[in-house]
Specification:
The complex is a heterodimer of chains A (about 325) and B (about 300).
Chain A lengths: L13 H15 L19 H8 L8 H23 L1 H7 L1 H14 L14 H7 L8 H19 L8 H6 L8 E2 L4 E7 L1 H9 L32 E11 L2 E6 L2 H11 L4 H11 L17 H14 L3 E2 L2
Antiparallel strand pairs in A: 1-5, 2-3, 3-4
Helix pairs in contact in A: 3-5, 4-5, 4-7, 10-11
Chain B lengths: L11 H6 L14 E4 L5 H7 L5 E5 L9 H12 L2 E4 L13 H14 L4 E4 L2 E4 L2 E7 L5 H18 L3 E4 L14 H12 L2 E5 H11 L3 H6 L6 E7 L2 E2 L4 E2 L8 H14 L4 E4 L7 H8 L2 H11 L10
Parallel strand pairs in B: 1-2, 1-12, 2-3, 3-4, 4-7, 7-8, 8-9, 9-12
Antiparallel strand pairs in B: 5-6, 10-11
Amino acid sequence: MNNVLTPTNRVQSESDLRELQRQMTGMLFRPLNSAWKMQRKSEGGKSISELAESFIKPNDRLTSFERLEIYNRCYWFRVLDSLYDDFPGLLAILGNRRFLKLTTAYLVQYPSESFTLRNLGNRLEQFLTEEPDWIAPHNEVALDMLRFEWAQIMAFDGPSRKPISPRELQKKTPSTLHLGLQPYLSLLAVGHAVDQYLIGVKNQETDGLRSEASNTSDTTPDQNHRRIRLRLPKPEKVYLAVHRHDNMLYTKRLEPAAFALLTALRQGATLEEACETAITAKAPKIKGKVRKAASDQNFPQRLTEWFADWSSLGWFTRP
Amino acid sequence: MGRRGVVIPLPCSFSESIMPANAFNGFTDYGIGIGLRVPHYRHILSENPVVDWFEIISENFMVEGGRPLEVLDEILEQYRVVQHGVAMYFGSADRLNKEHLRRIKRLVKRTNTPWLSDHLCWGSVDGRYTHDLLPMPYTFAAAKVTAERIRQARDYLEVPICVENVSSYAEYHASEMTEWEFLCEVVELADCGILLDVNNIYVSSQNHGFDPYDYLDNIPHERVGQIHIAGHSKFEKYILDTHDHPVLDPVWKMYGHVLKKTGPTATLLEWDDSIPSFEEVHREALKATKFIDTAISTKPKIRKASDA
């Protein structure tokens, strides 16, 4: 990108148009100050008022700066509200002030590259991996929650494939059978009970998922994000399947073996290989010895129950 | 087609007076629609209210699956739906987003929308999105770029396109003409329709100090395929297009004025924030009826494109 703070006041070509648009977005993408106003100086110390005057006309009530500021504020209110709507659990973990700083820094680093606000948070995990200080010292629980909330977004309106029928399943032999899983289904191994924590968070609010896209302008940032600080969840290994059924969002807790089985299937293992993975996953190695789940007399029955359950939920597809 | 997809024969005088005169105003029997919004889903699907048509925000349904598409399909079983987009950004210097277009086309096939609208604005550059409807510099070069994008979109989507004037809070030194002159230039170059947002004209007229009737009187009325009405919010030094109030009197007056020039035109009430009950929104929208009835009774002479 060229210098976005070089004044452009003529648009005689497509190239001129691009320069004007770069200049304006360069200013809109600059965060507001603590009073929710447009900053007065550029990063290079230039006067934003002078830069605004170079391409925005004043009128009898508003300066060029003030007119540009309306757009600057609308931009930030819109994108921040979208992230507040999408990540209420992360907000609850970090608190309003830290969440605001984090999301602002994220949007400066990674402005939206999608036509829909639905995807606004799709690089947040990458950003926090690159800059973990924003969530320290709650890094693990914050990342767990972020992954969980993103999985919910995927489950809400992600693609689906035609489920494979139980009859089709029965025709195949486990040693050669590969199964796909619904694209909207996310399997998460997290170190905290973020599912229960998020229920507590949502019980404190009435908002649902992200607001719809529209072409209206917000007059103020959404102030409905204040809530009582919940106690953070304690470390606890939890295996989750985030999915939808009848187009409603659900989270199912899985046994470690069930999680291992489904993960192996998703990674391309045959059904037989996946079951073997599940058996060994049931009990971790202790002093080099593996306590085989085959010794668990109920395991075959549980396996049957899992498959009946997952099939009824339509999770299995062709690979 | 009548309300809720039932074929209702039009009274003779009605059909004579509102016979579509051109390709852009061929939906004169569409009546009054309202925007389909989440808080109303339950009421609409359970009560099946009589509504001429619903306008959907295309981007809210350009998803791969789940509840949004389920609701849309249920609505489509009973109602006519028209697509309205917020992110095509015809005025951006960037080329049209192919993935975006592909998804719109898929949605067009699903909804069978008779026409499709988006805004005369820009909102992205170098692949970065502001998610806003930013004003254009009103220059001939910008009009040419914008018209080219509209033509490209129409050719790919294979559905008539109407472009909507946006409300704005800033003007550029670079501009060479008025907003309505720019609108005329674009739609003539693109040979497309206009979604005339009367509220947006009012908001911009107050923010920029022009006479809104100059705008209404100097556009190609034969290209107006749809009209938007909405409410707005007044601040000390400017007006913001918030869509969170009933339509204000000056906007109703402008609406009545332009209907005399365009003839009865598909009209939609936008209410996107602080959304009241479905009944209240619908009641507000139906206030347009008396203006449409007046327009029908006065039998306006709709200019043909060849008269222009």
